[in-house]
Amino acid sequence: MADIRAFRGFRYDMGKVGSLSDVVAPPYDVIDAALQQTLYDLSPYNAIRVELSKEEVGDTESNNKYTRAASTLNQWQNENALTQDTARSMYVYEQEFTVEGKTYTRRGFFARVRLEPFGTGCIHPHEQTLSGPKQDRLNLYRATNFNLSPVFGLYPDDDGEVFAKIEPLIRKAPPQVANDHLGVTNRLWVITDQHTISAVIGFMGPKPVFIADGHHRYETGLNYLAEQVAAGNVADNESAPNFCLMMLVGMSDPGLIILPTHRLVSGLGHVTAEQLKVALQDHFDIVDTFGTDAAAAWETMEMDGEQNVLGFGSVADGNWFVARLRDSAIMDELAPDQSKDWRSLGVSILHKLVIDRIIREKIGGEPFCKYVHLMKEVTDAVAAKECQIAILVPPATMSHVETIAGNFEKMPPKSTYFYPKLLSGLIYNSLKKD
Questions:
Q1: Which DSSP state fits 125?
Q2: Average pLDDT of 137-152?
C-alpha cells in the first residue's frame, strides 16, 4: 500500500520575497548556465540558489555549492523569508500550458510519500538512472537536509475519485500564482481540511505509484535514508527521512501528456537520405518520402500511431522519409531478456537496432544523441546543421509506462518527457523536521 502523508511544508513569505514568479525555478536537470544566471538575477530568494547553486573558483570540501545552498536555506529561515506551515497539509498544484498550439491544464497534489526500494512494494520506476546525478543530489541532501524539488508520481484513477475529494476546496480560495520562463502558469493551493486529507489518503492507499520524473531524486532519497539510519539519526519509521516530497497526478488527468523525445545524431560524417534507406533496407520498409517537409513526416507518424514507425531526416540533403520495422523478430534477438512490451517501444527499436547496430555497422562513426521534443527544435537543428541525422520517435503512452513499470522493467533513458517540468520553490520538505 502506498503510504501518503500530509506534512508541514516550508514556503516563501510573499511579504518578504515579493512575487512568487521571481523565486521559482525549474529542476536542476534542465537548467543551463544562461538560465542559471537569469534566475540568480531575478531574486536573492530564487530557488536556483539552493537547487543548483553556482560553483566558484577555490571551492573546497568544506566550502562549495552544497554548503552554500545549506547556508542560504538557513539564512532564509532566519529572515523568516522561508517558514514552515503550522498545520499538516496537502498542496494542490495546477499547471496551465500550451504545446503545439493546444492549451492543457494538469492537476495534482504534493504529499510526503514513504520511500521503499524498487521492486519491494507499490512504487515503480520506469526509466534507467545514471550514477552522476544521484551523487550530486546526495551531496545536496547531506548538506541541506531538505527535498528542494519534488519527485513526479502517477497513480491509476480512471474515475477521478481522488481529485474529486479535493476540487471543492480549491474553488473556495484563490491560489498563489507563478508564471515561469516557459510561459507556464503555476497555481498552488494549501489544503488543511483533515477530513479531505484522510479521504485522499484512504483512496491512495491501495494504488500503485509510477515515477514519471525524478528517478534520481527518489533513489537519492533511499540512499540518504540508509546513511541516516546507519548514523543513528532516524528514530523510527515515522521520522522525516523515511519520506520524500512527491507530486501525485492521476494517470487519467486530461492535462497529463507525454512529449516525444526526438534524436539529433552526430558523429557520423556525411550521410544522405538515400544512404540511410540502403542501410535500413534489411529491416525496414519505406512508408513514404517527404522531400524537405519534416512536418509532413511527423504528421504521417502521428496519424499512424504505431511504435514501429520512425522518421529520418538527412542534414546533408535535407530530405525526410518514414520507415516501418518489417519484422519484430529482430528485436527478440537483440533484447532477449526484455519483455515483448519493452521490445515493441519505438525508443527501444531506435537504440537497440537502428543506432547500436545499423548505424554503427552500415554508416560508421561514433553516434552521439542530443534530445529535443518539439518539431521546431528538430527543424532548427537541421537548418543549422547541428547533427548529421535527425530521427523522429513516437512517444510512449501512459499504457506503456504502466505496463512496463508494473512488470518491474525500466524503459531506455529518454523514453518519456512529461511536460512541463515541476517547479522548485513552491514547496520545500524538511528531512529533519516533521
A1: -
A2: 96
Q: Are residues 276 and 295 in the same domain?
A: yes
253 with 269, same domain? Answer: no
Contact 422, 186 (CB under 8 A): no
116 and 153 housed in the same domain: yes
Position 115: which residue type?
L
> DSSP characters for 304-366?
H--TTEEEEEETTT--EEEEEES-THHHHHH-TTS-HHHHHSHHHIIIIIIIIIIIIIII-S-
On whether the pTM is more than 0.85, the answer is yes
Whole-number Cα distances in Å, 55 to 58, 133, 188: 9, 16, 31
Assess whether 298 and 225 both reside in one domain.
no
Rounded to a whole number, what is the distance in angstroms from the first to the last CA of the chain? Answer: 22
Q: What is the pLDDT of residue 131?
A: 65
* Best CA proximity match to 346, nearest among 390, 301, 315: 301
Cell numbers representing residue 319 in the block: 530530405
Cell triple for 387: 547533427
Q: How far, in Å, CA of 426 to CA of 342, rounded? A: 36
Tens digits of residue pLDDT in 338-361: 999 999 999 999 999 999 999 999
Closest CA to 264 of 370, 365, 354: 370
Which of helix, strand or coil describes residue 3? coil
Short-list 259, 88, 96, 256, CA closest to 160: 256
158 and 25 within one domain: yes
What is the band of 129 on the pLDDT scale with cuts at 50, 70, 90? Answer: low
**The total number of residues written for the chain in this structure:** 434
Show Cβ contacts of residue 427 under 8 Å, excluding neighbours closer than 6 positions: 9, 10, 11, 91, 110, 150, 188, 245
pLDDT band at 118 (very low <50, low <70, confident <90, very high): confident
Say if residue 73 is in the same domain as residue 217: yes
Task: Say which amino acid occupies 292.
Answer: T
- Mean pLDDT along residues 256-278: 94
Parent domain of 221: 4-257+419-430
What tens digit of pLDDT does each residue of 186-224 get? 999 999 999 999 999 999 989 999 999 988 899 999 999
Residue in this structure with the C-alpha cell 525549474, named with its chain if needed: 26
Count of the separate structural domains present in the chain:
2
